[in-house]
């Protein structure tokens, strides 16, 4: 028995229909119809606390998302339970659009024109070409690598940073602490798609943000806890940073009275940069269920210690 659960019953119904059509030989159920002790596989995002402890037959968990920070922090998650996360799942293309939108806006000075508009200023700013703009991408997994490649194809100068060394054509790939400093020093746009892990939490602190060149832009579409929001506000206010496009926050929803909402240099979206698309996610999980049944290797297995 395979349990499919998200907090939204309509979404669960849509997932069940897709799973049943793709794998009619297996039994997919929602929480209401689940016999918890018989659940061997779980497909989920936002499972109520404590439920995992009631599933002693659970063999694998498939997260309906790319970032598994919340899931790994659950006290009821058995230490030896294999957890799989979505790789791409339709998210790489969306994330690429979200970041290209930000980078293009920066290159074409859209943020500055919006500010001029607010005070009725008609003033031409110097044009810049994509090749004039250096972009740094933090995170070079499935999603980050797709973002970096696409920006390079647009003509931007792209560097990328990851935990372990990578080799991606047309991208200057950096890693480690010194690689991070190298990347920050010359990224006019810093685009972050990192997951939240013990190594990345608090990564974008004041000192690292100050390492960015004067007038830089920050795009954060990874996780909110990577960034010191107060430091960002201070550096926008003192003019070191020019603007920010933020999709993720330390606290979500971002509290209505938070100063980020009304900052003229900040563009905010409500954690929508890349949402899980049902069809590609179902295809990916069905493929993995088949591979598991056949005793084959399965991708997307989360390394607990690394956090992704
Ligand atoms: C969304 O933020 C995800 O991690 O899938």
TrEMBL record:
InterPro entries: D-isomer_DH_CS, D-isomer_DH_NAD-bd, NAD(P)-bd_dom_sf. Keywords: NAD, Oxidoreductase. It holds the Pfam family 2-Hacid_dh_C. The keyword Glycoprotein does not apply. It comes from the Bacteria. Residues 104-273 form the D-isomer specific 2-hydroxyacid dehydrogenase NAD-binding domain. This is Glyoxylate/hydroxypyruvate reductase A. It comes from Chromobacterium amazonense.
């Amino acid at each position: 028995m395979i349990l499919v659960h998200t907090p939204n019953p309509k979404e669960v119904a849509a997932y069940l229909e897709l799973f049943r059509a793709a794998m009619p030989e297996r039994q997919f159920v929602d929480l209401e119809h689940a016999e918890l002790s018989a659940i061997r596989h779980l497909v989920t995002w936002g499972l109520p606390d404590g439920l995992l402890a009631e599933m002693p037959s659970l063999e694998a968990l498939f997260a309906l998302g790319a970032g598994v920070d919340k899931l790994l922090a659950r006290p009821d998650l058995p230490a030896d339970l294999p957890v799989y996360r979505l790789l791409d799942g339709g998210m790489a293309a969306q994330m690429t659009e979200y970041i290209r939108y930000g980078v293009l806006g920066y290159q074409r000075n859209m943020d500055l024109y919006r500010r001029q508009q607010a005070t009725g200023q008609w003033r031409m700013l110097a044009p810049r070409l994509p090749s004039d703009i250096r972009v740094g991408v933090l995170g070079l997994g499935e999603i980050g690598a797709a973002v970096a490649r696409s920006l390079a194809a647009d003509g931007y100068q792209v560097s990328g940073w990851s935990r372990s060394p990578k080799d991606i054509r047309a991208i200057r790939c950096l890693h480690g602490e010194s690689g991070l400093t190298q990347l920050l020093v010359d990224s006019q746009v810093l685009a972050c798609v990192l997951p939240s892990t013990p190594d990345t939490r608090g990564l974008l602190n004041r000192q690292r943000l100050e390492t960015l060149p004067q007038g830089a832009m920050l795009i954060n579409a990874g996780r909110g806890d990577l960034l010191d929001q107060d430091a960002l506000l201070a550096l926008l206010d003192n003019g070191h940073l020019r603007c920010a496009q933020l999709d993720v926050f330390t606290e979500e929803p971002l509290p209505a009275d938070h100063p980020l909402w009304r900052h003229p240099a900040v563009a905010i979206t409500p954690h929508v940069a890349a949402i899980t698309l049902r069809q590609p996610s179902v295809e990916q999980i069905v493929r993995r269920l088949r591979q598991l049944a056949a005793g084959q290797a399965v991708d997307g297995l989360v390394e607990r210690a690394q956090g992704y």
